[in-house]
Specification:
This is asparagine synthase (glutamine-hydrolyzing). It holds the Pfam family GATase_7. It catalyses: L-aspartate + L-glutamine + ATP + H2O = L-asparagine + L-glutamate + AMP + diphosphate + H(+). Its EC number is 6.3.5.4. The protein is of the alpha+beta class and 594 residues long. The chain has 3 domains: 220 residues, Aminohydrolase, N-terminal nucleophile (Ntn) domain (Glutamine Phosphoribosylpyrophosphate, subunit 1, domain 1, 4-Layer Sandwich); 229 residues, 3-Layer(aba) Sandwich (Rossmann fold); 60 residues, no CATH class. It is 41% helix and 17% strand. It contains 26 helices and 18 strands. The protein has a 6-stranded antiparallel sheet with strand order 2-3-1-9-8-10, covered by helices on one side. Helix 6 packs antiparallel against helix 18, helix 10 packs parallel to helix 17 and helix 23 packs across helix 26. It is globular, with a radius of gyration of 23 Å. The model has no long low-confidence stretch (mean pLDDT 94).
Length: 594
């Protein structure tokens, strides 16, 4: 797990190594254990290293295969790297390290751009062919590892974080109205390739981009489950699906035990993280470290679920750690969390993950986390509504159920120069749901949520917040084979028992029943949800700052109405509308965007 950066020039000039060094240094937190920069002609690569596999200096990056004339920087973890190394040895390749980075290079030597098909894991890769000058960029199937791009005159820059690109200089930081529309419609999600900045894009998940020395490029999407009932699973009953899901999750958890350092678990006490603890215990992992965070109550809303996480920790005998955060610390912690965001993220638990990651990083370097189960197995309360219509009616139903607000509402919120001339967010949803596959209305909704919303909300949140403390987070519910299985699972089995029915049935075979059957919990940060004093003061300062007035993003009367009743204005999904508007402005100011 690391941070990568680089530049390729198309104007026959040498790459700007100084800019790559600035980008690399901006990601020091992602890789506190090493730094490297490599350049040759028009291309330069930078890397910050977090030592997880092959702790020796032989595993340092950028890594060059002199015989093949290839240089690579890599962020992530290839869980099947040991098996791949043996397979590649059978093809005649020799290895000088025990790192997964070298396996990535040899896989490219063997299979070319199809190398990604052989990797099981999370990854962002930049690989340079010395002789051709060709650059190959790749991102894992579920977009767990980020890769941001900035096209500048005569060059392309790329990095693991958006702030790193800003550190390189020259980026167009004007706002993208389409992305802002999505941000205000989808609970702060911005679909790839866009970001809220017009000059920064992100490589979509499951994509390989080949960039030629003249600046031309081609993209190839190498993976997408069909979300249909595949013949391979014909005749399977509920018990068969329960067993298949549990076996696939066992494999996913076992894969994510790989490494040369201990692996802990972020334990909320809910079904998803508790399942991970149970399966790690089943694998025989001793002295498993588990970690939970909670917040002080505010406005009568509880801010912790320690009663559940404590029960799971006792049941499996883990080495459990709690972090209780007082409300007066939230406002100061918010600043650090927002500084760690590659894009503005409105969810309350962002600060929770950042504070928890600080605690966890003092104990372990790798954790498993339960993110993704609700999207993959239909765990949210709105999925029955989305499943209640015919397939062709699903886009409109999705807007009604999921969107924070309508296009007409946005016309009253955004300044005219920031409002697109039509509903671009709905347009995206209609186009995504019109793609082939996705047999039922629920299939179409889950496909969109898993491959777009999940990637650019909870998954990005976990990566940004953990990596700001040099902590690697692994997400077994996003094992691509488990996702493929879940996509083929009949919708009624996922919707059963109030959501995640098939996963709950699997959970009862390894967990106490009251852990599985407890009411669904969330991860509230009451001080943010209810605009407690210090948080509200920070919000007022940001929205009244000279930068905000000069930007003219929101209509003055809208901001005034929010500030007059900070805890009353809610989006269609119940989120605090003031926080959503203020977070965007705070993020822009934090990252020096005027």
């Amino acid at each position: 797990m690391c941070g990568l950066s680089g530049e390729i020039r198309f104007d026959k000039r040498p790459a700007d190594v100084a800019a790559v060094e600035r980008m690399t240094d901006r990601m020091a937190a992602r890789g506190p254990d090493g730094r490297g920069v490599w350049s040759q002609g028009a291309v330069a690569l930078g890397h910050r290293r977090l030592k997880i596999i092959d702790l020796s200096e032989r595993g340092a990056q950028p890594m060059t295969d002199s015989e093949a004339a290839l240089t690579c920087v890599f962020n992530g973890c290839v869980y099947n790297y040991r098996q791949l190394r043996e397979e590649l040895r059978g093809f005649g390749h020799h290895f000088d390290t025990t790192s997964d980075t070298e396996v990535v290079i040899k896989a490219y030597r063997q299979w070319g751009c199809d190398f990604v098909q052989h990797l099981v894991g999370m990854f962002a890769v930049a690989l340079v062919e010395h002789e051709t000058g060709r650059l190959v960029l790749a991102r894992d199937r579920l977009g767990i590892k980020p890769l941001y791009l900035a096209e500048l005159p005569g060059r392309l820059r790329f990095a693991s974080t958006l702030p790193a690109l800003l550190a390189g200089g020259g980026v167009d930081t004007s706002l993208d109205p389409v992305a802002v529309h999505q941000y205000m419609s989808w609970h702060a999600t911005v679909a790839p390739p866009r970001t809220v900045l017009a000059g920064v894009r992100k490589l979509p998940p499951a994509t390989v981009r080949v960039v030629q020395p003249d600046g031309t490029h081609r993209d190839h999407c190498y993976w997408q489950p069909s979300y249909t009932r595949r013949s391979a699973f014909a005749g399977m009953g509920p018990d068969d699906w329960r067993d298949a899901v549990l076996d696939a999750l066992r494999t996913a958890v076992r894969r994510r035990m790989v490494g040369d350092v201990p692996v802990g678990v972020l334990l909320s006490g809910g079904l998803d993280s508790s399942l991970i603890v149970a399966l790690l215990a089943e694998e025989g992992q001793k002295d498993l470290a588990t970690f939970s965070v909670g917040f002080e109550s505010e406005a009568g809303e509880e801010g912790d679920e320690f009663v559940y996480s404590d029960q799971v920790a006792r049941h499996f005998g883990t080495d459990h750690h709690q972090l209780m955060v007082p409300s007066d610390r939230v406002a100061t912690a918010l600043g650090d969390a927002i500084a760690a965001m590659s894009e503005p993220m409105v969810s309350h638990d962002t600060v929770a993950f950042h504070l928890l990651s600080e605690l966890v990083s003092k104990e372990v370097s790798v954790v498993q986390s339960g993110q993704g189960a609700d999207e993959v197995f239909a765990g949210y309360g709105w999925y029955p509504d989305l499943a209640s219509v015919e397939r062709d009616q699903e886009p409109r139903r999705y807007e009604e159920v999921y969107f924070d607000r309508s296009h007409a509402d946005l016309a009253k919120i955004l300044q005219p120069h920031m409002l697109p001339d039509h509903d671009v967010s709905a347009e995206y949803v209609h186009a995504h749901m019109a793609a082939p596959g996705a047999e039922t209305a629920l299939d179409a909704a889950l496909r969109l949520d898993t491959h777009v919303m999940l990637v650019d909300d909870p998954v990005k949140r976990v990566d940004n917040m953990t990596m700001d403390w040099g902590l690697e987070a692994r997400v077994p519910f996003l094992d691509h084979e488990l996702v493929e299985l879940a996509a083929a699972c009949p919708p009624d089995l996922k919707l059963a028992e109030g959501g995640k029915g098939v996963l709950k049935r699997a959970g009862r075979t390894v967990l106490p029943r009251n852990v599985v059957d407890r009411p669904k919990g969330y991860f509230p940060v009451p001080a943010v949800r209810h605009m407690a004093g210090p948080v509200l003061e920070r919000v007022r300062d940001a929205l009244s700052a000279p930068e905000a007035r000069a930007r003219g993003l929101f209509r003055d009367e809208y901001v005034a109405s929010l500030l007059a009743a900070p805890d009353e204005h809610r989006t269609n999904r119940g989120a605090n509308a003031l926080w959503q508007a203020a977070l965007l402005e705070i993020w822009l100011q934090t990252h020096g965007i005027n």
